[in-house]
Write a structure and sequence with these properties.
CATH class of the largest domain: Mainly Alpha
CATH architecture of the largest domain: Orthogonal Bundle
Largest sheet: 3 strands, antiparallel
Shape: elongated
Strand order of the largest sheet: 3-4-5
CATH topology of the largest domain: hpI Integrase, Chain A
Helix content: 40-55%
Structural class: mainly alpha
CATH superfamily of the largest domain: Intergrase catalytic core
Distance between the termini: 33 Å
Number of helices: 14
Strand content: 5-15%
Number of domains: 2
Radius of gyration: 23 Å
Length: about 300
């Protein structure tokens, strides 16, 4: 089993033989010791997932002057890459777990305007058992369960729902398709809404949008849903803004806080970029469902699935 502290000592000797200054070696030592102490505290192995978790730790960590800058985080990642390249080259490890680490930019810091789990619970408890209430409960559970964008919410069609599988097909930016897990609470709320409320709200109209406007029976618009969110926010006594993107930020934050890995969250939210698409496409839907089950606050009190 890899001993990181021994590996660090050998790495520092290697740097010295290569002519690195004492100051450079001291910087490597201090930075890499921080990493090693974190790994020891987590009792974690050196896998790509745990390295990504450490990267998230760097993003959230408070330094002497506040949050670490992107430049500081990326310098630390560069030191980790050098360390693990040496470990692999010297035969101490077989696989370099840093190959999939992605440098970050300042704009990737977590947003400040996020809801707490308790605030979300207050919102989700508000809708009643009327047709509109059942619709709103299903909508809120879907928004919090998946973190989908506003446009993705309004595009959701009946044919996109695969409730028996607990998944939904989402059409994102650029009409890109992805499959996301819905979560137990969202599935239950959708089943109740579709069975008991949707036909009432249609008022004789015929369309395949999942969510229906109570005003005219047509597809529910983002403006009407936005007004509903505002009303529930006031009823819940929440001072923060409550909107589609706030739910999205809150989902990501709550999953991160509970140990979800970065790749799964990015795939769940459809955050694929040109230079990281290959990483996201390797995330399987079963992995996403497992992440949701293990890390999402609305899944923690649900009994385990006996069907396996």
């Amino acid at each position: 089993m890899l001993n990181l502290r021994e590996g660090l000592q050998k790495f520092l000797l290697y740097l010295e033989k290569r002519g690195c200054t004492e100051r450079t070696r001291r910087t490597y030592r201090n930075e890499l010791l921080q990493f090693i102490r974190w790994m020891e505290a987590q009792q974690a192995e050196c896998t790509s997932v745990n390295l990504e978790r450490y990267q998230l730790h760097l993003m959230l960590r408070e330094g002497v002057k506040g949050r670490l800058t992107a430049e500081s985080r990326n310098r630390h990642l560069s030191e980790l890459r050098s360390f693990f390249r040496y470990l692999k080259k010297s035969g101490q490890i077989l696989v370099n777990p840093t190959t999939e680490l992605i440098n970050t930019k300042e704009r990737q810091r977590l947003p400040k305007a996020v809801l707490t789990v308790e605030e979300v619970e207050r919102l989700l408890a508000l809708p009643d058992d009327s047709a509109v209430g059942l619709r709103d409960r299903a909508a809120l559970e879907v928004l919090y369960g998946t973190g989908i964008r506003r446009i993705e919410f309004t595009r959701l069609q009946l044919s996109d729902l695969r409730l028996a599988e607990g998944t939904a097909r989402i059409w994102g930016k650029g009409n890109k398709e992805r499959l996301v897990p819905l979560g137990t609470m969202a599935v239950e709320a959708l089943l109740a809404y579709l069975k008991e409320a949707r036909s009432q709200l249609l008022q004789g109209q015929r369309h395949t949008s999942v969510f229906v406007s109570a005003a005219h029976g047509g597809p529910l618009s983002d403006q009407e849903m936005g007004r509903c969110l505002h009303v529930y926010r006031e009823q819940a006594g929440i001072e923060k803004p409550v909107a589609f993107h706030i739910f999205r930020h809150s989902v990501a934050t709550h999953l991160l806080q509970r140990g979800a890995d970065l790749r799964s969250i990015q795939a769940l939210l459809g955050h694929a970029k040109l230079d990281t698409t290959a990483i996201y496409t390797r995330v399987d839907i079963s992995d996403l469902k497992r992440t949701l089950k293990n890390c999402h606050p609305r899944e923690q009190d649900v009994p385990p699935d006996e069907t396996g």
